[in-house]
Structures are given as C-alpha cells and as structure tokens.
Amino acid sequence: MPELPEVETMRRGIAAIAGSRIAGAERVKCQRRPISIQPRPAALSRRLIGTTVEEVGRLGKRVVLKLDSGDRLIFEPRMTGLVLVADPPTREHLRFRLDMASGPIPHVWYWDRRGLGSVRLFTKQQFDERLGNGRMGPDALALSADELCQRLGYSRRPIKVALLDQRAIAGIGNLYASEILHLARIHPAKRCDLLTRQQWQVVHERMIDVLEKAILLEGSTLSDGTYRNALNQSGGYQSHHRVYDRAGKPCASCGSQIERIVQAQRSTFFCPKCQTKRRSELAFRP
Ligand SMILES: [Zn+2]
Question: Is residue 16 part of a domain?
Fold first, then answer.
C-alpha cells in the first residue's frame, strides 16, 4: 500500500502540472528519519529548476514526471508516501516540495509518515537501466489476458505470490491481489502453471474490474487513515473490500468465514468456500 489505484489517483491529482515550468525544488526541513532523495538536494534543485514538465505518468506504483531536459523525476510512495497539492495530513512529515511557475497547481508536496519512500531524479539512461523493460513488467492495466498468461502461466509459484512480482506485472500489491482472486474464485495458493487458459482469462477480467473500480473511487484508505488523495481526502474503495483484512467476517458471496493465511511473509485473505482448493493442485500443503 499504496498500490496501482492509489498511485494512479495521486498521478491524476497532479496531472495539471503538465506544461508548467518548475520554479523551485526543495527538501523540506524534517526532524524525522530522512527519506532517500537522489541526487543530493542541491544538485537535484539545480537540475530541476527551469525545466518544464512534459508528462505526468505512472510506472507501476510510482509517479513519474517526464521533463523537457530528458530527465525523469520519480516519486515512489512505498508504504506511507503521498503526493499532494495542498493541505498535508501533518506538517512534520512533509519531505519535499516542487514550486510551479505557472498553471493551476502552485506546489506539489511529497509527504511520508514512515519515510520509506523516495524522490529520485534519473537521466533517461538511468531510468531505462533501473526501471525500463526487463526491470519492470508491463502495467497491470496495459496487459492483455494472453500476455498475463504468457508472463505467469509457466510459474510454479502460488498465484497470489506471482501477482505481486513487479518484474512480471507492475502495480498490484497485497490488498488488490486478494480482492482479484476472490472475485476470480481462485485459491491464492493455486500454482500458476496449473491454471487453465480460461482461468487466466477470468483473473485478467477481474483484475481490470477491481483496478478500474478502485481508481474510480480514488483508492482504499485503510483503518490507519494514511492513504489520502492529492487533496488530502480519503479514498472510497475500502467499503468495497470483499476479503482484505476481513478474517472471521462473512464472505459477501456465500456467508462463510473469510480466512487469513501467510504467503511469502504477507497476509492473504480468501474465502475457503468460494475459492476452493484441490490438494493435488496446490504448491504446498498447509
Ligand atoms: Zn465465499
């Protein structure tokens, strides 16, 4: 968290800076553990000031500003980062500020409570080397069902774990993976190479449905309240969660109790009745 829908909401929240020139760029004085900023703040400001934002894009779970200098400025929120245009949840966790010379948005803020995120400026070459093809899978929203099947269908990993692999497919995290598999009625421990082509088709359809609906509702704000849109408002998808963080509560489809298991050190939530398992098909026997 935040995942594709939340980061896409952040991107949309600042999209109106496209075409504007950067007049200032500064690390905000902060008493907390410093976030990763690359290059050093003085060099970063020097390379940013005077450039124009050509495009406000997203790569998986990162907001990417393409500048007319050819550089890319990347905000990576990781666990608790936010890209805001106004009114931060707290002053003490503000980390970085961009000042725009013109246009409807005077400032873009990067805020991060735990401080695990980063602000990085890459040349085109650095960007391609670190985040280009081969390093990152295609965006979950830009992938066809056939491509999804080609990228994961050979894997012996459990499907829930494979969906989180950003090198295979970019943007899905722990929350939406559980939601997608519940709607697709597939057990999260089912091995990828045992899914049929038709099942991949269903996973793909549900993945697009879940992500698009979550974007429409501006993401999920969990009980910790951390995630906010660019205007510091809550998202709305949390009230549509079917399994995530609902262990012991009834399944919306069948009434059975939602269960929690741990896969690759992460919690997975699923319905044991809607997402049945046949032991012979599973990667492990819990
Ligand atoms: Zn159920």
Answer: yes
Size (the chain), residues: 286
Identify the domain boundary among 97, 131, 165: 131
- Strands 62-67 and 72-76, sheet pairing: antiparallel
Q: Is 3 a catalytic residue?
A: yes
Q: Is 197 annotated in the active site?
A: no
7 with 221: CB under 8 angstroms? no
Q: What is the domain count for the chain?
A: 2
CA dist 246 and 227 (Å) reads 19
- The whole-number average pLDDT for the span 106-118 is 97
Domain with 44 in it: what CATH number? 3.20.190.10
Whether residue 2 lies in the annotated active site: yes
Say if 286 falls within a structural domain.
no
Per-residue pLDDT of 64-76, as tens digits, reads 999 999 999 999 9
Of these residues, 213, 260, 266, 277, which one is catalytic? Answer: 266
Which of 2, 77, 158, 188 is an active site residue?
A: 2
Query: Which residue segment(s) compose the domain that 191 sits in?
Result: 140-281
CA distances from 196 to 154, 183, 281, 285 (A): 11, 16, 12, 21
Nearest-5° Cα angle at 268, 262 to 272: 105
181, 209 Cβ separation under 8 angstroms: no
What is the distance between the alpha carbons of residues 35 and 91, in angstroms, rounded to a whole number? 15
CA distance 174 to 160: 8
User: Is 61 marked active-site?
Assistant: yes
Residue 74's DSSP bridge partners are: 64, 120
CA proximity to 36, closest of 62, 70, 7, 5: 62
pLDDT in tens, 125-134: 999 999 988 8
